[in-house]
Amino acid sequence: MSRGRFIALEGGEGVGKSTQARLLGTALEARGIAVVATREPGGTDGAEAIRELLLHSPGGGWNARAEALLFAAARSDHVEKLIRPALVEGKWVVCDRFVDSSRAYQGGAGGLGDDAIVALHDRGSEGLRPDLTVLLDTDPATAGARLAERDRGASDAIGGRDASYHAEVADTFRKLAEADPDGFRIVDAAGSPEVVHIRVMNAVAPLLATVR
Ligand code: TYD
User: What is the total count of domains within the chain?
Assistant: First the structure.
């Protein structure tokens, strides 16, 4: 059996990743592909428990290094127990956020730097990379409006950080994508979910072509 494919959807808050991950999973299944849809932080019982610690941090929050370590620990569990076994079984994994979120949030906006995050990922998850990372990119005003609709003022510990933090996240995502054009596709996230879905399918078309 051939190895499955690993697709991550990335982007800042309110760009519609979760909706697009769901639409992508459904479209792949309609093509007869076995899909495992998952998310980060989370995806396994242990990683979901760490998600709670991260997003609703007890005692006033984590320092930047502790935060990065917790994301890396959650990812390590997720990769070992869910993602790698699914790929070995020939399934396609569609993941709502992966290591590039840590590179953009903790590495870029959090100030730890890319090398530190990549080193943690090498140690925790043997450096597993998606076959393709789809970066959903939109202007801050559109994302802000979608977010207000979704969260209705109840954002989590990281989503609730200030606009300059989120601007740095968006900027780092773009730089990562531009530096690795083989690994990333940048998709314009403006427009209806259906229109954006068509763009996402165009972005993953080369991967689909490898299995036909
Ligand atoms: P989530 O509710 O999944 O956010 P969204 O719907 O916007 O994807 O919460 C995940 C939060 O955790 C989000 O603010 C991004 C942040 N995050 C990091 O800071 N680093 C990471 O490595 C990951 C996976 C997420």
Answer: 1
